[in-house]
């Protein structure tokens, strides 16, 4: 048997016919260039032009330029040896070459298939398909989870949630476990909780099991999910995108089908934003409807318990366990707030409008009315919301943060520093505006369902610049604050897409107490 | 742009030249056959003969027959749709086709590359490379772990194990956690432990953290790792092989680099066998040298605490924490027991002999002597060992097993049933033989290191027949029982290979108390 002798050693060659001259030498040059990261040599070995293609199962790059761009940005260089080569000549000037590879130290096997063609006497790769050896997985993805079990906590009863699995945001007390709040210094100072939060206990009593305790942004004071200590959980709907937060770990665990239910909190969008970014169902409940006992507070005037699921039916089963008995109100009007819609990116705003009109036209939502809310009023309300939220967040966490300097991630630290400057007078003024807004919104929402975007756009890229992140955040907060101001339930449904295909949520916001009605609307309309 | 219209819907086709007639129709027939599991049609679409090839990064199948055999044995049928097709014609009668695919419900992307060739007017696939969409990973691999954290338990002090991560076999008490013993019915009846086992506490005090509690065979009464309730942990060194047990989960966690140290127990090989099968370092300690307090007993006459690592230096750091101060004995003789070697498979026996002679010749081990142990004596000792082990195992677990019928996996249940029949008289007789063997072995091991195989062969296949498993087990137990009979330490080192490349352990068995000497021998000889 012929032997291939290259940079990684020798390997047997099995061919279906005479191996064309120069082919194995060209392949050797390719392997050498790859393992030494000789980008110029690799570029020269790939055929020029728009038809050259390289794929690896996750990404398909078409055109020499796209492939060259990928190579120049690559920072991890493969280490491997070729363990076998198959050659399948096609005529005199083309051959398919398949090389089996193996990572060092008994590592995983890989396979690369290359279509080589001889153009003007020189062998070039026209198409390549690479199966990369899988990297060893850690015992647990620490960007998603802090503790996990099979399950971690067994059900304590039977009921509508029999067999359902739950990821609990690391703000809830779970008996025998500490509460970590997304910050390692905080965690280090905790003792195990003696009792579980009532919301957790109710799920266990209804037959659910707790798979584990999942990540939160630090003290829940972010909408991004980019925890400085534990990383950003994956967003399977947008592989290059952030997860959204602060209920970041539970959302990713639900999206990855690791659990059925993500139990979290929503003060200013912390359920709705990750639901929107990951294409999930997310319910923020009516303020005060679900006990927040045993849950670390952020801003009690707005804090609510909520949950993320992959479908509305599961979300309703949770609602039947955690929420008071259903009221029998049903909306007779669909509301739109053009001022709010205009804060979304144009593609999301357009998708929302189209979907909202379709739902009304098909009778899945009641007749549409445009409501009037000026930009000035929205801005005044939003400022009051943020001021009061910040004041309460500092009241809840300021002492600990002051005593533990340097322990917060930069963005959360900056937010708390700003929060620390708010005076009691400013907070009192904000509280008055919030009270007014709540009254106005109560009138507006009476018998109505407000349909707005859950977030200004889809998930920003993990490496998006601060301006882009801040623009998304600023628009989103002006949408999400309305439920907080109203003390109202808000249900994010995976109904929209950005122009480039990222999911975005359509949000149903109802009068306080209408939580189950929103879920019923979603279910009867086939919306999730 | 041209459209491909097939069973999964339509997809754009991008070609570098005119698409040869009939090619897309043939590809459509292929997709239809694949998604409907029409094995005959798939066989007909692959070119006949020995050069047809199909690879997926893990396996490469060469020849039409091998591919057909794979298809006929496949039980999971892909569900996916084609999202894009690239065609790269090569002459008139050949074309490379690359199809991007996507799993349902926003699932992962895949890529398949096919070399099509027209033979006598009919298009056939001559080569195929498939990147399968990755399956969603669970939150935790329940074949390896029961509970896991980041970490699960923090260090309580600093020392030689600073930052080292530990998987604790589910037989050790960990404060705040239950002890599961590899059986869900047992686990359900447990309360969380108030205190950790001293061995666990000592590791934490020396700076190690506990990543989690890892799987054991039920009540540690098996060498296979094939837990009937939680599955068989992966063996990364032998992907189709069993893990070995009963310290199965810790071994896999170490081999997968999820932790540095696997803390376990060894009664009749439960550290040495998984070390052997997975290419790890595994130390069974001198009987009584490490406290077994807080560890569920199997057979106290032989039970020992031990650990698995990827290198001998880490194993020595653990020894410095858990074992008494070093004695200063050093072996002056290397012993071989031809009777025992002969129980290994011929390839392992040969590999052992070659390696042992090399080590002696290079002065890494002291001069070699052949010791005399007849098959009859070995068989008598082994029978006594098994009898006493079984009697003690029933004494430790019989009441619970009797009270919980039907809760054990079949093989472990059968073993306990057999154990239940052993009379006190039989046990007393066995104990006398064990005492005699211990005296004989103490003489034999004085100033010596016995070099033998850690297991009769490499890891059996997961689907190996019962005869093969029993043959491997029978040979292995006659090797591993010697350390138990002697109360002696035994160190398995990843020095051997089976004929087909599976790892197997070379075992150093020393006089009681020589645990650290064995590790020093391994380190100074560069053996692991």
UniProtKB/TrEMBL annotation, chains A, B:
Q: What InterPro entries does the database record attribute to this sequence?
A: Amidase_dom, AS_sf, AtzH-like, NTF2-like_dom_sf
- Provide the Amidase domain boundaries: 158-519
Under the heading Pfam families, the entry gives:
Amidase, AtzH-like
Put simply, this protein is called Asp-tRNA(Asn)/Glu-tRNA(Gln) amidotransferase A subunit family amidase
Annotated source species: Kineosporia succinea
Lineage, uppermost ranks: Bacteria, Bacillati, Actinomycetota, Actinomycetes, Kineosporiales
